[in-house]
Amino acid sequence: MDAGIVRSQETQVATVLYTLTTLALCLGAMLFLHAAGERARIQDENRIWQALASRYLEDGDIPDSWKGPTSLRIASIELTADARAGTRLKSWSLDSLRPRDVAQFSDAADAGGQIDCLARAVYYESRSEAMVGQLAVAEVIMNRVQHSAYPDSICGVVYQGSERTTGCQFSFTCDGSTARLPRGGAWRRSQMVAEYAFLGFGLEVTRRATHYHTIAVDPVWSSHLIQTRRIGTHIFYRGATRREVNAGLVERDA
Fold first, then answer.
1. What is the residue-level pLDDT of the chain in tens, covering all 254 positions?
2. CATH architecture of 67-205
3. Cystine design at 237: which of 12, 53, 105, 225 (Cβ 3.0–4.6 Å)?
4. How far apart are CA 135 and CA 111, in angstroms?
């Protein structure tokens, strides 16, 4: 074989190997940076969760670091935490929380059921979101509970329309998602988010939003509302005031 052809083939092989090696190194660097960023995000969220949890559970870090059942009573609120069951509200006094949080619930058992509905909504609607995105979903539900146009309980809001094949307010209640039961760390964190939002400790993050949708869709109803924020993969909306409607900031209802 001609020496020039051999050298050409060797050069081509070396080029291919160099290109493959470069691509592998770039891919490895990307994976490393992603893993490092994700680890940093998780560490930041864990620090935030510890600070939040310490407001009503002295042990803090409830989502990931249970060492067995614990119980704490603060004022009239008694909470119990367990690694398998999550945090549970055992008893409370109706005057121990903000009025908007307790007006519809007569006892701790009812409150526990409402928190469970909220946790399931957070889990199925936003378990892949960062903490603020999950809190935002919970906040929308709590805002609806206080709005005259919606049911006056969390479970009523979450499962509104779920008896129909279309028209459910939250897609997970009628698209078969609940066939897979909530589990693992994502479920424990959803429970924490629900309890935190229910007890009224959270700062407002959605600017009074009562609606949201993912960035993957553009529902017709969004043109009749005022966009408030985008958080993670969700866009949030509130109802328009009469002044905003008259100013043409939203489309009028047909």
1. 566 665 666 677 677 677 777 777 777 777 776 666 666 655 555 555 555 555 444 433 334 443 333 443 333 445 555 555 554 555 544 344 444 444 445 555 677 889 999 999 999 999 999 888 999 999 999 999 999 999 999 999 999 998 876 778 999 999 889 999 999 989 989 998 898 888 776 678 899 999 999 999 999 999 999 999 999 999 999 999 999 998 888 887 65
2. Orthogonal Bundle (1.10)
3. 225
4. 18
Bridge partner residues of 89 (DSSP): 79
**Dist CA 110 CA 153 (whole Å):** 10
Where along the chain do its domains lie? 1-53, 67-205, 206-254
Neighbours of 180 (CB within 10 A): 8
